[in-house]
Amino acid sequence: MLSQKIIISIGLIFLTHCFGKSNKETHRLEHEARIADKMVVDHADLLRTNQGFRNLTRAGVPQKRVVGVISAVSATFGLLKGIADNVDFSRVCVIGFKNLGNRKLVDPTWYLSYGIIREALPRYLPAGEAGVFTFEKTGYSTAGTAGVLTYTVAGTNHQIAVYWSVPFFYGINYNELHVQVWSGAKANEALYNSMEADEEKLTVSNSGHWLSASGWGITVHAAMTNAAKASLLVEVEFNITTPNEIFG
């Protein structure tokens, strides 16, 4: 009987290794990222149907590089991919950072190991809003874009940290993603190296696009497409209250 249980356990481990974990198969963001990998964006339709995309254009003309704030409802993989399509460099990571909590996200910091961003990140993201950030490779360099950014939950010392890497050479390298919840952290080389080396970091592939993290009442879900012009969607959820907020 014991030997049968051992055989069954080994079989389940083998199937999990071959086909991926079930939570990655069923999570909504995993599903949406896989669809986005095969999506062909109709920019005219996106301009007509997505208010956030329209708000990020200039008089209806899509911009090549976008940094802005829109309604969280409008921040979809379709919107991110539509923005990435317009960038005239071959390696891009467009990040949608959705604040689904009950406080502002403030005090952004960022560190880039490779690549550039043309504008500063928005100083704060109101509850129910999303930041959209375009990171790209540098000019004629043979490196892609890789970095880390943080936002702090207002009134706390807790940060949401996002790491990404979009390599220049595919085949030996792949897109990478990591999210963590920190206390007292700031985006710098040390944080970048820590998240890059962490074994929980996700190598984006057909077997997984999504991961999550939580701490101090904050939950972060993120998913990334498996493309040279990558879309990375982050959802931050929390409901933080103080005794004064509860009792007045």
UniProtKB/TrEMBL annotation:
<dbReference type="GO" id="GO:0051715">
    <property type="term" value="P:cytolysis in another organism"/>
</dbReference>
<keyword id="KW-1053">Target membrane</keyword>
<dbReference type="GO" id="GO:0006812">
    <property type="term" value="P:monoatomic cation transport"/>
</dbReference>
<keyword id="KW-0166">Nematocyst</keyword>
<keyword id="KW-0732">Signal</keyword>
<dbReference type="GO" id="GO:0015267">
    <property type="term" value="F:channel activity"/>
</dbReference>
<dbReference type="GO" id="GO:0044218">
    <property type="term" value="C:other organism cell membrane"/>
</dbReference>
<dbReference type="GO" id="GO:0046930">
    <property type="term" value="C:pore complex"/>
</dbReference>
<protein>
    <submittedName>
        <fullName>Uncharacterized protein LOC111136759</fullName>
    </submittedName>
</protein>
<keyword id="KW-1052">Target cell membrane</keyword>
<keyword id="KW-0472">Membrane</keyword>
<dbReference type="InterPro" id="IPR050677">
    <property type="entry name" value="Actinoporin_PFT"/>
</dbReference>
<dbReference type="InterPro" id="IPR009104">
    <property type="entry name" value="Anemon_actinoporin-like"/>
</dbReference>
<dbReference type="Pfam" id="PF06369">
    <property type="entry name" value="Anemone_cytotox"/>
</dbReference>
<dbReference type="GO" id="GO:0042151">
    <property type="term" value="C:nematocyst"/>
</dbReference>
<feature type="signal peptide">
    <location>
        <begin position="1"/>
        <end position="20"/>
    </location>
</feature>
<dbReference type="InterPro" id="IPR015926">
    <property type="entry name" value="Cytolysin/lectin"/>
</dbReference>
<dbReference type="GO" id="GO:0046931">
    <property type="term" value="P:pore complex assembly"/>
</dbReference>
